[in-house]
Automatic annotation (TrEMBL):
Its EC number is 2.3.1.28. Pfam families: CAT (PF00302). It comes from Kordia antarctica. GO terms for molecular function: chloramphenicol O-acetyltransferase activity. Keywords: Acyltransferase, Transferase. InterPro entries: CAT-like_dom_sf (IPR023213), Cmp_AcTrfase (IPR001707). This is Chloramphenicol acetyltransferase.
Amino acid sequence: MKKLNVHTWNRRKHFEFFNTFQDPFFAVAAPMNVTKAHEFAKASGNSFFAVYLHDCMKAINEVEAFRYRIENDTEVVIHEAIHASATIMRPDKTFGFSFIDYDVNFEKFRKNIEAEKERIINSDDLFPPKNSEDCIYVSALPWASFTGHKEPFHGRKESVPRIAFSKMEVEKTKKKMTVSISVNHALMDGYHVGQFTEKFQEYLLKH
């Protein structure tokens, strides 16, 4: 982790402006073509969630703005890697928050998911032992289709992005899923969200 020099940052004025907002987050929802990713998951016997989450995290880590976090109200730090804090459901339909360490290697990442899933299923803890801001908050709603999504926020400054995935739907020969992403406008703009969605789509189509 290193500090970003806010004084020489070309977005300094944007940061200072949006950082005064009570709610500086904006959200974008985008449809993703998940046909190949779903077929790969089915053919390989892997969880579809694990496959698309790994593609998502690769894209997240490749866009530097998604690794920015606000510290001490006016400072910005750049994390080396961003991990996934996803909600995982238990058999009784409650959920726990996970902290899934990111790894560019899919098999290692999948094992990290399984380890967190086992921990959550075998406990009633809401929060993971590791709970830091070098992550994105992830929710999957495979029961519902949506074109927009509102995430809950504390009444204090936050800078961790939120991502939600919708139910997968079939349109003729294509399978689609909406991804909704909420980000702090003090740290990034629509351009950076566009970089993420483009990279995410590219990875989904590479399977």
